[in-house]
Design a protein that fits this description.
Blueprint lengths: L11 E4 L2 H12 L3 H22 L13 E4 H4 L1 H15 L3
Helix pairs in contact: 1-2
Organism: Blautia ammoniilytica
Protein name: Cytidylate kinase-like family protein
Length: 94
């Protein structure tokens, strides 16, 4: 069974340019730029493997697999939350 088989599930993909992700990781974890790149690469590999396993071969960055895709660098993280809340209201008629 896939998450798309459930009416009460939504899938959201939030992305930002690598530069923004590196800056965020450096600030949050107080690591160097090379360490931030390494952490991001390891996390992305884990996410890709996890997604591929549970979707039986799906690719986690294939945007057609998501109900909603956001670029947090363009709108900001807080506004992403607002958009997701609005989407939930629309999707589930709340």
């Amino acid at each position: 069974m896939r998450f798309t088989d459930f009416d009460n599930v939504i899938s959201i993909y939030i992305e930002a340019p690598r530069k923004n992700c590196v800056e965020s990781i450096m600030k949050k974890l107080q690591v160097s730029e090379p360490e931030a790149h390494e952490l991001i690469s390891k996390t992305d590999k884990y996410r890709a493997d996890y997604y591929e396993y549970y979707t039986r071969g799906g690719y986690w960055t294939n945007l057609v697999n998501y109900d909603l895709t956001l670029n947090s660098a363009r709108v900001g993280r807080e506004k992403c939350v607002d958009v997701i809340e609005d989407y939930l209201k629309i999707r589930f008629d709340l």
